[in-house]
Inverse folding.
């Protein structure tokens, strides 16, 4: 393989038990020949691992997407935690038959609605992992940490589904979280979020 990033992504595919092929096919595009990094059989999609990219490489990638609307291509621009879990969740959704390229606006809204409803349910289950009702007497005040982690995982995955169906990328997620952090620290300096405690 050409990079340590590709090796790391391939190890994730192996861990998930996916059937993959490295550099499966050459596509002729108006910008030149393009070879995706991976083909995932179960998801029927190509995966491109793209950290740093030249304008020439991005041109070929853009041409491939425009000239092959029937092909699913996931582009991974970050192999940190968010990038990897988002990639895995999108592959899982593709394995279930949710083809991002073929979704109409109405279908996207329906997928978002269903996943937000699932998130709503998971928030309730997350609460149940801790003795949160102040008016109830519990046998103990222990937090069920294992259950809490499991329910948070479920909630997080449904949130990723919403973002994927909306067409967002891992960089969009990181930017959004960073914006919240900036806002919260500004409020901290102003003293306005002291009321949250």
């Amino acid at each position: 393989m050409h990079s340590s990033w590709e090796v790391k992504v391939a190890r994730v595919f192996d861990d998930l038990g996916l059937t993959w092929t490295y550099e499966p096919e050459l596509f002729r595009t108006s910008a030149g020949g393009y070879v995706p990094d991976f083909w995932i059989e179960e998801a029927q999609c190509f995966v491109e691992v793209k950290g740093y990219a030249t304008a020439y490489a991005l041109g070929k990638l853009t041409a491939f997407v425009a000239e092959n609307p029937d092909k699913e291509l996931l582009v991974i621009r970050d192999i940190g935690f968010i990038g990897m879990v988002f990639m895995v969740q999108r592959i899982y959704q593709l394995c279930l038959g949710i083809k991002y390229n073929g979704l109409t606006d109405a279908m996207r809204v329906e997928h978002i609605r269903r996943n937000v409803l699932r998130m709503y349910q998971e928030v309730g289950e997350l609460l149940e992992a801790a003795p949160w009702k102040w008016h109830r007497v519990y046998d103990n005040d222990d937090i069920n940490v294992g259950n809490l982690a499991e329910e948070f995982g479920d909630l997080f995955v449904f949130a990723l589904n919403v973002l994927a169906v909306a067409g967002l990328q891992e960089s969009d997620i990181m930017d959004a979280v960073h914006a919240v952090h900036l806002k919260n620290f500004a409020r901290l300096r102003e003293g306005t979020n002291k009321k949250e405690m």
